[in-house]
Amino acid sequence: MQSDPRESVGHPQQNLHLDHLPPELLSQIFECLVPNEPDSGETRPVAYGQLNPEESWFEVTRRQSGLRSSCLVSRQFYTLARRFLYRSISIIDEVAMVLLLRTLIEKPAYGQETRYFSCHLTLTESSTIREIRKYAKEIFRTMDQQLLLGQTHPLLKYLTTLHNRKMTMDEYDEIPQMILLCILVLIPKIDKMLLQIPLHEDDAEYRALLTHFHAVTLMNTEGREKWRGHAVPCQHLTKLVLQGDPEEMSDAEQAAKEDGEAVGVDGSRAGTYWPLLTACPAVTSVEVTIGNGDWPESSWFDQDKPLWASLPHELRNIKHLDLVDSFAAPRDVAVALSCFPQLESLYFEPKWSPENVGWEDEDDVITLDSALEKHGRSLRRLDLAWYDCSDCLISISEETILSSLPKLTNLEILYVQLALLFTEGRSYKDREVILDFSNLFPPSLVILVLEEWWWNDSMYWFPSGNLQEEHVRPEKHLQYCASLEYSLITFASICPNQLPSLKVVNFLVRLSRPWIGGGPETMEQRLANVKSAFAKNGIEFSTWQI
């Protein structure tokens, strides 16, 4: 029998396993398996085999499965991998929510590791309430009753009566919210949370959740006394995502498409969730998806005995506000600026709907321009765009330009439509003139993204074939394109003096056909003179089609 050649040179034979790696190295490996946060606005995942590899849930599911499998390899792996297993938690079904609460009660140390939590259930939906109530009764009956009775936190005491007493209809409907609150108590160190909220005006809001969070902010009241000496949830939370129910939105869009009617959704009422912001002092970033844009909201339930007054006039701790797929009008953004006067970044992405154009009251004196001048001095990044704002000029600016921008002396990144900058006229027929960009931007600007206005919003009502034939004839737009090209070249010449920090200019167009017709020329070739003019002054210029 031939001997192992390693023995002859003094290297004893070893069985190499991952178990033999240093714990520090294993911990780094397991940390790489912690799931990334799922993208906001995504619907809940289907079966793993049906997931698209490009979906965020695909990677989340794979990583979570890898951590679970690692816990089954050996005792050492279990000890090291377990704390990463609970680092990021996403609730996607009712039974998982109840099981998570049971696990955290039995093993409270697990919740100390959690840093990200997301709940992808609408907790006021009737089917969700019914399912959670059913699973809660079944699962909590199997728990150690002494463990439940031994809970001292006022919220966790609620669990002791969950399965053995009669409830009113209101209490029955609040069970999912109370379970969520108990989970939040047991994961005190989370720094980011996604909460899914309803879309329709007729849907009930999270009354129980907001009531308890509002009690945290009240001093010298019975509600506040209940919390004394006990952990207050979400005190380390830095980012809150309020996600309008994407499944509800998808169903509404599908129904509207089949019926040939408008989408019957008003958007989530994120303004009613301000008690979460006031009770969580570390929150600096808020993201709202499919929101109706209303800030603030007055008390929205029990008008005879309002639980609290309207939104506090200012929430100064919020530095970053992202409004994604939003139904907000320019006036709504102006109100948001007054509610969050210390904003450093404001991102707005519109949700296209034919019904959300022409929202404004002619007597409304609140304008986006005045709000930016008064409340936008801290902004470092501003990103604004609407599909059509031709019917709400009065809420954009009282002047012919957005005159507040030069006064935003901290602004470094700006994305803006030309239709917002020059608030007179929206048609290409009105734009056969040279646009004056001088003294329009602050000298601190580093990156500027300009989007050309859209000259015919009725494009959304026509088939693509008719659009090409009837609405986008290059010969009608030649003067418009030539004027805008010359305006950009002139703008490039004044940048060194007026915008010394400017490094990048991007120009976005909705359709390239008016610029290049049907020929082989590209947008880059069409605007080569513009690019050259900016390059002479050390500024990078590029053009994209959106």
TrEMBL record:
Q: What is this protein called?
A: F-box domain-containing protein
Organism classification: Eukaryota, Fungi, Dikarya, Ascomycota, Pezizomycotina
Residues forming the F-box domain are 18-91
| Gene3D superfamilies hit by this protein | Ribonuclease Inhibitor (3.80.10.10)
Query: Per the UniProt entry, what species is this protein from, by scientific name?
Result: Thyridium curvatum
Pfam families, A to Z: F-box-like
